């Protein structure tokens, strides 16, 4: 009986859930970003070993958001999550000038994967509430975002702890999703 109800529900429920990968170096604020979007508040987090996944609903669009651990030893495993990904969100610690080149290398390595063709890219310039942070424009230049030709991309200044800028970034994602539905 459960299978019949499930089949009946899926027949009438045509709402697609979009897969989003939330990546970045360790301590960039990925998990804080995820739970700020999911719960509407910052929570105490620990370094992610493996992944966290939550459904985020924004403007009636459902996103299955995968928060992937950012430690150097975990980054090679990101590739196992690429299949059927609609969007990539790179969270950047705007105060971490020493590792901005590593962020650039990881971003470019990831977006060159054939499994991510067609995925759009959102870069969150996180920790904008902290002193001496790089601006979104500084980060855009450092990551060479204007050289990205195979993906729609956007950079959004934000503070995951305060929740500022996150909705605007997801507004952009919703716009991309809706445009892709109309093609």
TrEMBL record:
Pfam family, one: Arf
SUPFAM superfamilies referenced in this protein's UniProt entry, alphabetically: P-loop containing nucleoside triphosphate hydrolases
Source species, domain of life: Eukaryota
SMART domains with a match to the protein in the record: ARF, RAB, RAS, SAR
Binding positions for Mg(2+) per the UniProt entry: 31, 48
Gene Ontology MF annotations: GTP binding; GTPase activity; metal ion binding
Gene3D superfamilies: P-loop containing nucleotide triphosphate hydrolases
Annotated GTP binding sites: 24-31, 70, 126-129
Residue ranges crossing the lipid bilayer per the database entry: none
GO biological process: vesicle-mediated transport
Alphabetized InterPro entries for the sequence: P-loop_NTPase, Small_GTP-bd, Small_GTPase_ARF, Small_GTPase_ARF/SAR
Keyword terms, alphabetized: ER-Golgi transport, GTP-binding, Lipoprotein, Magnesium, Metal-binding, Myristate, Nucleotide-binding, Transport
Protein family membership: Belongs to the small GTPase superfamily. Arf family.
NCBIfam families on file: small_GTP
Protein name: Small ARF-related GTPase
Classification lineage: Eukaryota, Viridiplantae, Chlorophyta, Chloropicophyceae, Chloropicales
């Amino acid at each position: 009986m459960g299978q019949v109800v499930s089949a009946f529900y899926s027949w009438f429920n045509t709402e697609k859930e979009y897969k989003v990968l939330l990546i970045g170096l360790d301590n960039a604020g990925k998990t804080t970003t995820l739970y700020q979007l999911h719960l509407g508040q910052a929570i105490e987090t620990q370094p992610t070993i493996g992944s966290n996944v939550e459904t985020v609903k924004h403007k009636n669009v459902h996103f299955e958001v995968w928060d992937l651990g950012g430690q150097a030893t975990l980054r090679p495993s990101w590739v196992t999550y690429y299949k059927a990904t609609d969007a990539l969100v790179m969270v950047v610690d705007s105060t971490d000038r020493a590792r901005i080149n590593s962020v650039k290398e990881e971003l470019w390595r990831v977006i060159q994967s054939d499994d991510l063709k067609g995925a759009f890219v959102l870069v969150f310039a996180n920790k904008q509430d902290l002193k001496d942070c790089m601006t979104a424009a500084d980060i855009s230049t450092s990551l060479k975002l204007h050289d990205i030709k195979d993906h729609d991309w956007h950079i959004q200044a934000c503070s995951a702890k305060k929740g500022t800028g996150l909705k605007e970034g997801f507004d952009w994602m919703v716009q991309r999703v809706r445009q892709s539905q109309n093609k």
